[in-house]
Amino acid sequence: MSNAVSALNGLTAAGDVTVKEAGLRGMITLRGDFSSRKFKNICTELSGMGFPEQGKANCDGDRGLCWMSPDEILLLVAHDDVAESLTKIEKALKGQHYLAANVSDARAQISVSGPFAREVIAKLAPADLHPDHFQPGDFRRTRLGQVAAAFWLTETGAIEIICFRSVADYTFRLLAASAKAGPVGYFTV
Amino acid sequence: MLVLHCPYCGVDVDETDLHGGGEAHLTRHGPGSSDDEFHDYLFQRANPKGVHFERWRHVYGCGKYFHAARCTMTLEVFGTYSAQTLEPPQEIKDAIMAKRPDWTGGAKS
Asked: Which of A71, A141, A144, A161 is the best mutation test for B, with the most CBs of B within 10 A?
């Protein structure tokens, strides 16, 4: 079997705020009926996390659930567990109308951590990132610069970003440039 | 800058996250309709100065279409609502009537 390599192979831009490509992550796009108990159960079983409310993400390490839209969940698992997870989903949701797709190698995940990580993102996205509004567990799909991206805030104050693999290089350079430019000082954290 | 509330995501979304989808509440005329009806369905659009109902797609977010009631003159937004409806919900109509008492109820004023 071929050797899986993430989009930027763990590239890091160190500084006051560090931008780091997170490496190989298992991601499954799961669409279906959120009111179905089976659907929710398989999500929580595979991720080990609670089913997220609208606009939230429940993530811990490389496992988690992200609310993408009223009928779409992004299931995060270890990269090696994707095939097994898909088999389990197929078994659990048999007979239901659903879609599960392995998008692990179509996406990239980038971590931004440091004292003004929030502002590094706020400079690039048309989203309200004020500490009063955007808190740990909040998840937002929007754009960063010119490309689509989704991000959430972790308990430690770091921001995890998911974007398409094809624009991983652009996103990384954009974030690194924003981090290098320093804080704005608008959010008093 | 236009900011609309996405009823599916529950967040206020910037115009650059959205894509306009043209006039809302069109009646589709497909096979079996007359040439005039089909022509109007394809090409004839309301272009009011004032209250207008529009479709918007949250293209960088959930990817869903929703509807917005807006004033084309002042850019005031009266509200947004789900696209799974044939006409604006009562609360949107009430919000418009509160601000535009002379509104006659149609998008084609």
From this structure: A141
